[in-house]
Specification:
The chain is an alpha/beta fold. The chain is built from 21 helices and twelve strands. Helix 2 packs across helix 6 (95-109) and helix 11 (177-187) crosses helix 12 (191-201). The termini are far apart.
């Protein structure tokens, strides 16, 4: 028998098999990376399209959602683990390859998917989207990762807490170091509190609904959801939680705009402003940064119950259209305008109540937008600060003497919260504002751990809400 006869026949080439769930998750991760898109905006249309094509059922959609959000939340940790398994700097790994790797690591260390299935499915995805050569690289790395569990890897890749507390927490809880430092400064206290906060940022938030007063009730929403899925809100009298998740749009009240999806922290902020003590008339309300319209819709409903009118202003035309959609059907008078709150078209002293929910870093909503932690930089706050101060100054000018302004932001960073308010009151960059603090804590009855006041900072780990901040100010002169 000659050598040619002894030689085994070559294996036939096998075309890679496309896994629709993992392929969709990869598409979403690439959109987040390449286009600076947000997963909560990219993923729903992809899932809708897959369902329409008959490729997905509810279990597939749940897995794709977990792969996308789990990978984004734990990206920092997974990057550190991948870096320990390769012989080159992590920055030299092409982003699409890193997305496949991180998603594979999440399946190995963050889910109950069996090891062999996690590796083989990730390698097959790599063959489809990266090619045969890179698929071999993915296979080699993931087999190294599979040799240990998450706790074992964290012991290897995270510096000891005693040597560098912030870097340890950054790696273990998958937050950039500067974010860990900023959150710790805002929270205060020792290790337990900051660890609880960072852990809460990595948990999937509940879907919370708001029953807009005069248009819907919590009883209606609870009945529609059923006993197994419907739970009352923790703090807001307008809130209902979806215990098992699901699609809110199937509810009639949500489809008709009588109810909506809104975090309980946002509900508490709007309600506190609406119920702040006021002397004299109470007929003209303003939402000065109204897009995309959630708080404006709740304020409009509350205003209508008192015979007051709401003006909802938004600088960006496309967001103003979202506000119009959110307010459509409100029983009371309202108006939506496209206007810049730093150069307002209204006269000074026009309004009785003003909510100024200012643009910010979004560090308070990392549970919902996990990619924001990797996208933001410390210098971003320097860009927000002048805008935030300008909006608050104009709000205090636009409210009448004795009227109330609520300064709100979805960030716990001190540079975006109390520092902004104190700067405006003291006159940094302009005249001191003639205004006084109102204690916001009594306006959130039943909510614990609200601090020393007079302003309020909500926290995911303490309140189950986004980290919303609220300062209430009364114009005095």
């Amino acid at each position: 028998m000659n050598d040619q006869q002894r030689r085994r026949p070559a294996k036939p080439h096998r075309r890679p098999k496309k896994d629709p769930v993992r392929f969709l998750a990869f598409e979403a991760l690439r959109a987040v990376d390449e286009r600076d898109a947000y997963a909560n905006l990219v993923l729903p249309p992809l899932l809708k399209k897959a369902r329409a094509a008959g490729d997905f059922d509810n279990r597939d959609a749940a897995l794709a959602t977990e792969l996308v959000y789990g990978t984004l939340r734990r990206q920092g940790t997974y990057d550190a683990i991948v870096a320990a398994c390769i012989d080159r700097p992590l920055r030299e790994v092409d982003p699409p390859v890193l997305d496949v790797l991180d998603m594979g690591v999440h399946q190995l260390l963050g889910t109950r998917i069996p090891t062999h299935a996690a590796v083989s499915a990730s390698v097959e995805l790599a063959r489809v989207v990266l090619g045969e050569g890179r698929a071999k690289f993915v296979n080699a790395v993931l087999r190294k990762v599979a040799a240990d569990d998450l706790d074992g890897w964290l012991e290897r890749v995270a510096p000891p807490y005693d040597e560098d507390p912030e870097d340890h927490l950054a790696v273990v809880h998958s937050h950039p170091r500067w974010v860990v430092s900023a959150l710790w400064d805002a929270l205060g206290g020792g290790r337990a509190g900051i660890e609880n906060l960072l852990e809460a940022d990595n948990e999937r938030p509940e879907v919370t609904l708001v029953a807009r007063p005069g248009r819907s009730t919590t009883e209606e929403l609870l009945t529609a959801l059923g006993e197994e899925n419907g739970l009352p809100g923790r703090w807001s009298p307008y809130a209902v939680r979806m215990a098992e998740g699901g699609e809110p749009g199937v509810l009639e009240a949500v489809r008709e705009g009588r109810a909506g999806v809104q975090d309980e922290g946002s509900q508490l902020v709007a309600a506190a402003l609406a119920h702040a003590p006021l002397e004299g008339r109470d007929s003209r309300w303003l939402d000065g940064c109204a897009g995309p319209g959630g708080k404006a819709a709740l304020l409009a409903a509350l205003a209508a119950g008192r015979g007051a009118a709401l003006l909802a202003a938004e600088k960006q035309p496309h967001r103003a259209r979202l506000v119009e959609r959110a307010l459509a059907g409100n029983p009371g008078p309202y108006q939506v305008v496209t206007a810049d709150g730093t150069r307002p078209p209204w006269r000074p002293g026009t309004f009785d109540r003003i909510l100024m929910d200012v643009p910010c870093s979004g560090l308070g909503a990392l549970r919902r937008r996990p990619e924001a932690r990797w996208r933001r930089r410390p210098e971003d706050l320097e860009g927000f600060a002048p805008l935030q101060r300008g909006l608050l100054r104009e709000a205090l000018a636009a409210v009448r003497v004795g009227g109330v302004v609520g300064y709100a932001t979805c960030s716990p960073h001190l540079a975006e919260t109390r520092v902004v308010v104190e700067d405006v009151l003291r006159g940094r960059g302009g005249r001191p504002a003639e205004a006084e603090w109102i204690d916001a804590r009594p306006l959130m009855p039943g909510v614990p751990a609200l601090g020393d006041g007079p302003d309020v900072q909500l926290w995911p780990h303490l309140h189950g809400t986004d980290a919303m901040y609220l300062a209430l100010l009364r114009r005095t002169g």
